[in-house]
Specification:
It is a single chain. This protein has about 525 residues and is an alpha/beta fold. The protein folds into two domains: about 325 residues, Alpha-Beta Barrel (TIM Barrel); about 140 residues, Dinitrogenase iron-molybdenum cofactor biosynthesis domain (Nucleotidyltransferase, domain 5, 2-Layer Sandwich). Helices cover about 40% and strands about 15% of the residues. The chain is built from 17 helices and 17 strands. Helix 5 links the parallel strand 4 and strand 5.
Amino acid sequence: MRATLGNQADASGHALGQLLDKIAGHKGCGTSGGEGKASCGSSAGPADMAPEVWEKVKNHPCYSEEAHHHYARMHVAVAPACNIQCNYCNRKYDCANESRPGVVSEKLTPEQAAKKVLAVASAIPQMTVLGIAGPGDALANPVKTFRTFELIAKTAPDIKLCLSTNGLALPDYVDTIKAFNVDHVTITINMVDPEVGQHIYPWIFYRNKRYTGIDAARILSERQLLGLEMLTAAGVLTKVNSVMIPGINDRHLVDVNRAVKSRGAFLHNIMPLISAAEHGTVFGLNGQRGPTAQELKQLQDECEGEMNMMRHCRQCRADAVGLLGEDRSAEFTSDKIDAMGEVVYDLDTRKQYQELVEVERQDKVAARESALQEIDATDIRILVAVATTGQGRINEHFGHAHEFQIYEVGSGGAKFVGHRRVDLYCQGGYGEEDTLPSVVRAINDCHAVFVARIGGCPRDELQAAGIDPVDRFAHEFIEESAIRYFGEYFAKVCAGDIEHRPRGDADIRQGAFTAAA
């Protein structure tokens, strides 16, 4: 069975590779994809939801954890103005050196944005979603936002339309959102208690008046929750983003989770605060720290029982292009697009790619289910880190990894639970000894790290830290490999060869999140 599945996977992977080679020659643009199956932010499939909902999420990289390995998104920076101020935000224009929301290299008119979308979609057939996420607020710039959507709907009707908003103006535009066939909206909701909100938002500008303090937070919260209820009634899928700020709203986000679930939110994305002095934000300058990866996971785990959690967010720039976790916007600057001349929208190639993704998806699911049948039920679970460039496979060298994807594995399967950004260990072909300890710290709660290749020195250091470096599953499916590894691990535990011990407990106990609880 496994050999047959492997042959099928190799065939579909080869076909995807051939198609991507073809795309790479098209105007110099191309990339490798990733995993396919849609999941509503978890591991759900078409049997777990209404058909019309499945169609909306199955190839949306933000609304489906597994789809984000295969499908790309792009943001167009047509919305520079904002109607609130957040203590974690500092919008920067003409900035190529920071990877966080609110930052762009160039602002676009709706006409420039529409031309850019066609160029990107023709060069990157896995780009299925167009979002407007700033650099300010999409609904604080309604004319530019909806003009952009109008132009794209005419020329590229197969692309899903999304917008992100702070929610202050949302109730005024729900009917317009529905009329423009915008099926996905993200609202950033960091509090439902104005006492908490006053520490996050210095001011809002509402109905031609500036409000501050508790009054500002109260108005904002009321408008956000009303807008969410209206979107739910209109049948628009809504994702709620929340920024986890230790000591300010970390415990309160449990209440936020319950509140947004009760009002029909489809997905909740709890993100870590990005806080560095060089960003120039209030929190960055006053030393407010962000959560550790373990603290973030603990909160996400606590909220997951209430509703689906998104754990694969990369907190993208407002002009991001490509798969989540990569940014190819530098390939599609206005001058480069102008130099392309007339752009021909290659719908046929886009369809071919997505058909092959569906084949890969089926192979992956079958391989995972086959591996699960070989494991007895147990409550034991472990974390594994994975180096991957996409396609749901273990296909990256340890030293080349910018991040590791983290999976929680047990007899019930392998569940994606987050990602950890790390410094590159290899620079110009050489290992950098100063960076290896930071990599180990980033994945110190993992029992193993799966890689395509790894050198002798980092292998020894990982083993000394109690992390098993695994390269025997190179280029195989992540979930199938993780389950097979867990089966071997569990067999050793049952035989008494090793003692199971969760890793990283000390780090969690010492974290401020647990202390605050």
